[in-house]
Each structure stands twice: as C-alpha cells, then as structure tokens.
Amino acid sequence: xxxxxxxxxxxxxxxxxxxxxxxxxxxxxxxxxxxxxxxxxxxxxxxxxxxxxxxxxxxxxxxxxxxxxxxxxxxxxxxxxxxxxxxxxxxxxxxxxxxxxxxxxxxxxxxxxxxxxxxxxxxxxxxxxxxxxxxxxxxxxxxxxxxxxxxxxxxxxxxxxxxxxxxxxxxxxxxxxxxxxxxxxxxxxxxxxxxxxxxxxxxxxxxxxxxxxxxxxxxxxxxxxxxxxxxxxxxxxxxxxxxxxxxxxxxxxxxxxxxxxxxxxxxxxxxxxxxxxxxxxxxxxxxxxxxxxxxxxxxxxxxxxxxxxxxxxxxxxxxxxxxxxxxxxxxxxxxxxxxxxxxxxxxxxxxxxxxxxxxxxxxxxxxxxxxxxxxxxxxxxxxxxxxxxxxxxxxxxxxxxxxxxxxxxxxxxxxxxxxxxxxxxxxxxxxxxxxxxxxxxxxxxxxxxxxxxxxxxxxxxxxxxxxxxxxxxxxxxxxxxxxxxxxxxxxxxxxxxxxxxxxxxxxxxxxxxxxxxxxxxxxxxxxx
Length: 528
Known about the structure:
Elements: E1 4-6, E2 24-27, H1 29-32, E3 57-59, E4 68-71, E5 89-93, E6 99-101, H2 103-106, E7 114-121, E8 130-138, E9 140-144, E10 150-152, H3 154-157, E11 162-171, E12 180-185, E13 198-199, E14 202-203, E15 217-221, E16 227-229, H4 231-234, E17 246-248, E18 257-261, E19 267-269, H5 271-274, E20 290-293, E21 302-305, E22 314-320, E23 323-326, H6 333-337, E24 342-348, E25 357-362, H7 369-372, E26 380-381, E27 383-388, E28 391-394, E29 406-407, E30 409-415, E31 424-429, E32 435-439, E33 445-450, E34 457-460, E35 463-466, E36 469-470, E37 481-486, E38 493-497, E39 505-509, E40 516-518, H8 520-527
Parallel strand pairs: 1-17, 1-18, 33-40
Antiparallel strand pairs: 2-32, 3-4, 4-5, 5-6, 7-8, 8-9, 8-11, 9-10, 11-12, 12-15, 13-14, 15-16, 17-36, 18-19, 20-21, 21-22, 22-23, 24-25, 25-27, 26-29, 27-28, 30-31, 31-32, 33-37, 34-35, 34-38, 38-39
C-alpha cells in the first residue's frame, strides 16, 4: 500500500508515574458515556471497505477549551444496506471525564455515507474548527457554524468527487495562509470491481495488490469557502497509489511515496532517491499508518511507517539533503513490531521528558487470518515504545491494562482530554467500540501551546519541535503542542517560528509551566 508523505539499552527507568497500576488507565464507557460502536458492515463476501475503518478525530468543536471526539461509521453503499440507519458520533467533552453525544444536534451523523476517516481544521479562518469526513462514495465537508451545529458544504466547496478515500491532511502547500487539503485515495473500487479471494471455499479480504491503484486528490483553498482541484497540475495525480496514511512535514528546512514540495505549486515524487520507497532488500512493503517527528533530536524531521506483519515497521532517520536511512534495526523498532500489522500511530512524549516516544495501534486486516495462518492474529495489542537516546524500549507491559488487551484497532489519536498536560490516547476499532486511555500523570513538568499551526517550529533552550499536519491513520490529533521539560520547573523562553507567509518569530519570556499558553491569534482571542 503506497502512502503519501507530504513534506511542503538498558539503563534504569526513571519515569515518575505510577509503577504498579500502569501509566494509562482505561476510561470505560460506563464512566465516559461513550457507548457508540462501529459497524463494519461485515458480510460473508468480505468487501474491502469493511476492513478499512474507522478513524477518530480529537478537536474542540465548540471552543470551550476541552477536546471533543468524533467517530466515523459505515453506511449505505453499493454492497451494504444497513437494516437500521447507522450514524457517526460526536461526543462533547464535559470537562469531568464524561462525554455527551451531540451528533444529531450538531448535524454530523453522516448517515447517508459509508464513513471511513476524519480530519479537523478551521479551513475558512472564522475561529471555529470544521470537519472533513472521508467516505467510500463522496467525502463530506462539515462547516462549523459556531453555534454548536455544522452544515454540509461539500458541493458548494467543490469537494464532492467520488472514490474510496482514506486519510486526509489539512496543510498550506502554497504558503498563502489558507489550509489546503490532501485526500488520500486507496484503490479504484466498486462492488463490481471486487476481487475473488478465497481459502478452502471461504472468502477473505483481498490484499491491496489485487486492485488497481487510484490517484489521490490535492485541493487548493481559494480563501472564499471553495477549493480548486490541483491534483494534475501539482503532479500528485501522476502517481496513482494505494494511500492509507498521510503526513505533511518540512523535511528540507507499494513503494512509499515521498512528495517533495517544489514551492511553485508542484510536487515531485522522490521516494526512491530519498531511500523510503522500498525496504533494504528492495521490496515494497505494505505501509498503513505514518507519522513524522524529530525522534533523535538532531533538528531534522524523521519519518515512521507501519507495515503488515513480518515486514517490520520502518523508522527513517533524516540524513539531510532529502536522504533517509531506515533505522528499524538499530532503533529496536523492527524487532518489536515484526509480528504486528500497524495502523494508527503517533510520535508522542508520553513521559514528558522532552523526547518523542511512539504509540502504535495494531490489528490484522483480515478477521479470518487465524484460520489461514498459524502465528498470526486478527486482534493485536497496542505498543508503547519509550525513546532512550534513539533506541526504543517496549514499555507496553507496564503501560496499563489497556496495553495488555487485544483489539481490531485502526485509527489512533492523541490528545489531552482532561487538560492536565499528559497525553491521552483514543483508539478506534473495526466493528467494535472505541477505547479511551487516560494518562495517570507524573512528576515531570511541561509547557502547552495553543495556536501553533502546522509548519511552525517551536524552540526552547535545549530543544526544538516541528509541528506537522496529519499523521497516524484516518485520524486527526489534538492541535495543541505539549513540550515535556522533565524535572525543569522553569523556562527562560520559548520561541515560535511561524510558517510562510508570515515567517515571523514570536518569543515568549518566562512562559507559564504546567499549563497551556496561548500564542499568535489564539493569544489575541484569549485576551478579549
């Protein structure tokens, strides 16, 4: 499966969190009120879209300072007519560990579509976060009215092309200050195009190699609520792929696709030259979830790609000059992930010590895999990998009960659901209910930033963080930035270098520690 990467040991463990009960606790549906479950439209025939979703979006839809949750769901299509109407779910965060289902009132049920993923961003600059839902069929753009409700503006916006869409990324590729939109397309698909994949007379989900690749979409934001399809002139359409995950990051200060922004409205595909197209053995791997971040602290953005079981996941160290080296072996990532199939994932500083760790959601795409292959499982556990000077150590066994269970996981989003500065995790599972994992906290200090857009660079004495767009799989992340400070209780300054067209630098002296600080336009709104 090709993915688009849009780019515009052993030492004593010092984590200060609870040693016995685990780093994370499960927030059960009985506590949160999140009782919605995903319906994967499972059929005896095993149509491909059944196995793909769902994703999850973490975003503050009502601007009350608390992160809310959105889950897409399946719906009517050419191979599936539900016995009763299905709907997505929007849960409002009540600020006390509970959530209220506001889907119908908000108008985001997406009941007429086969929902797959979600991506949230304020595309029209009115201060309220909007929501794109990717579907099998036509995508849906929900514009946030600012009163707790949304309107479907898909057709008016020019985003109603049909296909089998997966991950979407909002990012400003032409530096005009408006978030543009990349929408990943998986394969050319319809019920009539479904392939026959059987073992001993039993249908299984076909591998992506069975299908014809389909070009993804790039839409330029016109700044007036409409978009122009620039897939052809940008060069994106020249490279049909089987896109699952997508991330946008500045890396220059299936085979995998690495699209390099030429900064003139065009992209060139440099995956082979950069060293991310194939494995070290010259084999194209599956590639589902992706993310980008500077895991080794050298000031360059590195890449992470999840693959199918027995392929090893990839962690590509940025060598500079648009060259990468897969460090799966030396980093221990390859050993820890060899038997897993990875989907949602995230670079995240789970212990707030200042470097980027990894959390991975796993599960085989074929629910009948256990009958066909010994040693493989449909449901798989999550992985929490701690970064220790560039080598990743598996912390899953003491991460809490949620990491000792197994899931048919797909989407993964990270966000601070209780505003305590510690990253919580939400997992969206195929044909099951979501899993909410609450971080129990610790003694390390942190600084939170509200208002830093994708493309910005955050610097502080002794470190830096690149703010990326997209990442994971079918999912949208808490847009706030949390910088772990370890035992440091005071910081002299923190600086934000804004992306083009602004490119100004904003320095905050003596920022508040262990709380969120508003910067840029967010600071202006907070002061009013």
